[in-house]
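Quick look at the format.
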Amino acid sequence: MPLHPVPARPDGLPDRIRHWIGGAFRDSADGAVFDVADPVSNSPYASAAAGGAADVDLAVAAARDAFPAWAAMGDRERANLLYRVADAVEEREDRLAGFESFDSGLPIAQARGQARRAAENFRYFADVIVALGEEAYRVGDRQLNYVVRSPTGVAGLITPWNTPFMLESWKLAPALAAGCPVVLKPAEWTPLSANLWPEILSAAGVPDGVVNIVHGIGAEAGQALVDHPDVPLISFTGSTTTGRHIVRSSAEHLKTLSMELGGKSPVVVFADADLDAALDSVLFGVFSLNGERCTAGSRVLVERSVYDDFTRRLAERAERVRVGAPGDPSTEVGALVHPEHYARVMDYVETGRGEAKLVAGGGRPSHLPEGNYLQPTVFADVPRDARIFQEEIFGPVVAVAPFDDEAEAVELANSTRYGLAAYVWTGDLRRGHRVAHAVESGMVWVNSHNVRDLRTPFGGVKDSGLGREGGAHSIDFFTESKIVHVMLSEVDTPVSACPEDRGAPVQHTPPT
């Protein structure tokens, strides 16, 4: 076996990744670049433009120039463009999936699903913007109040390295539907699939300047976008630490923020649950997407009477998960995205050995001596104060702990600083509702894994974020709502402006 295995290179792989500003590819203003490596060989395959403040300035200016015409376009016309974007994404599904798998380490079979979801995001928000009405309120026969919705302006979109293309679409689609031009800053570890957006958007006929892409390091390109005074909106998905920094930086210009941050989501399994279905869901929820997902059910809380058996079966199944090359259709867990992240996850695994009982995984698969690979890992009997119980690992690692009754289950579920998602498994639907209401999280699934309708709000509480996106909530984020009050009858003002007439009603005749 070669010392550094070379992954299968997808067709059309570029050796340069450049900014896309005002409808044209551009190098960085200062010529700066950074290397982009794949997670199997950890060897550079391309250089990417490293954006800075000057590049963000150009991108924001292009977006501002495009704003009036894009905002004035009718909802149906914008929707038709979004449908064409969806078609263009679907036509490139194989290429997209190949790029995403190669660049991020995501198993190719799962990357295909992400490509299809990206297309659906555009179709869905095209439907939303055409169907979405505005509110009106009748105040008896005296007054009519109605809401006017208008796009806010240039939206700054900062996206993460896990499922990058799909999460870019999740922000691009509602921003464009609402009438906002955008500046997108993709994650520096996974810029490859974002390099397909110019081709897709151009094929769909999206006007130049409506979407601009600035690559680069978060502390430079991302910071410049957050600091820019002509970008009133920032939608960010990423770590809680970075999210806090963005909130502080955005205070200067009182920006509107949507922050989808970290998670340490509990899966609560009661003894009366369908344990086979719960086990399948746990495996999918924490090991799919290489465990690099914000909604991963990475804390499994099991009622004590079935705890030993459930934990044993979970460990056995984890050992059988197929870890392999991302491009292999049979792979279930691929390579973690980057050596720095791999080292961080492995540090948690080593920490866990001293905090709990390792019952599965914990190391590199023997058949994969190189690359960022980790066998799915299960820790049992994990105490609540353990780091692996409290902190987001963002890899194929799960912590399992027992509970004795419903109250303890809820208390354990709520015992971290995160509150993004939660999962409850029980045969008692009344208990399912009670626990779902008591758990501190933005989203709860009862007897289900993470299956999410695009109409529903997405977001967390506590350290898992601010705001909600999804469905009409996304349109609310990218628009300003103005209330207009119109009198329909004579105005009866109770107090005159003249001191000598104070207290006497004044009759005003409406203009004809």
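Next, a different chain entirely:
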Amino acid sequence: MAADTRTTPTTDADDPFVSVTGWGRTAPSTAYLWRPRTHEQAAAAVREWGARGGIARGLGRAYGDAAQNAGGCVLDMTGLDRIHSIDVTDGTVVCDAGVSLHRLMEVLLPLGWFVPVSPGTRYITVGGAIGAAVHGKNHHVSGAFTRHVSAFDLLLPDGSVRTVTPGTDLFDATAGGMGLTGVVLAAVIRLHRVETSYMLVDTERATDLDDVLARLAADAERHRYSVAWIDLLARGRSTGRSVITRGDHAPLAALPARARRAPLAFRPGTLPPAPAAVPPGLLNRATVGLFNEFWYRTSPRAGSGRLQRLTAFFHPLDGVPHWNRVYGRNGFVQYQFVVGHGQEETLRRIVRRIARRGCPSFLAVLKRFGASDPGWLSFPVPGWTLALDIPAGLPGLGAFLDELDEEVVGAGGRVYLAKDSRVRPEALAAMYPRLDDFRALRARTGADRVFTSDLSRRLSL
């Protein structure tokens, strides 16, 4: 890379070759990290990447190896963080790809607007939200984040920039394409109007898996947001017992007088960070079992209309900096899959298998997806998705998850690439029917020779 295109390394070290890992803290690899400050610097970097290519990286919240590139380049996009314009009448924002959802909330909420889709963390960039086609608790109503993107500027393999709009192959390949078609530089996003920064929340307990599925299906359209925490250690008649949380943006009239003085204030709370060193094996079947029992028993059997700050409803874990450290230095694997409506028996078998295996997961979430999104590698399909965190050091974990993959493939389902760190290429090919189209577009545009990652090499993308 020429001297005049060098940008600031993302660490304080003099050597820009650094070890990079995903949020799960597994399989680190060493890459050359750059932080461009302008679109021109990003283009110059792409033109001069070597044989190992490069990949864009945001805030590092992909759980696996999607934003890593062993021996190559990684473009830290967080330096491209300008909000260019906000239309408070139509509810649109134009911003750089390195702007975080956290920053958008800081700026937009006081103006009465909220991001259209938010995953479980607000510490992701707009570029990452597009590349992973992220979804939230409102997919059954609003779809994935990319459904609300009117256009984005994409840096192509030759260093040129193209404005890409929905309905084109390049848009559909990039939405969920994990950064492998180009580098998103900026985007136009349609927003959701809100009156306050509070949520009205209903909570109830479900006694088993069939109960939670029935409840989520029955009230699918009544609430904008819904999710269920599921106890994956419970067995017997309690298998799949859950705590369902549903919510909607609170209107101004629902707030008490004191809160109405600043109804749109953005005030996320923060707890002390997780310790850098955590004893190995802290999260095991016994400790997680105790936590799950406590959480289920102390949750309301049926509660409605509770006011909750927006950040507590959407991003409870963001209040604990570096919470991923609690899994110890071996890290953790997040496994998320989806199976379609009519495949509930597969979901039941998988939940029973996880419970019998004793996987100590206290972050297990069940959601109902709505209509599929247009992205060729977009994850959601109409049906049920289950996500769970598992300590990476659990004996036999790889073989066990391979077996679950077979169940998912047999049901016509798929796993989520943004959270994957271990799926086999042959399984992936069976999960994503547009995979060959994606590979062909990469070859046709030359992206396969320029944009590469540990994930793309592992899965031959």
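Residues 15 and 292 are 44 Å apart (CA to CA).

See the schema section for token definitions.
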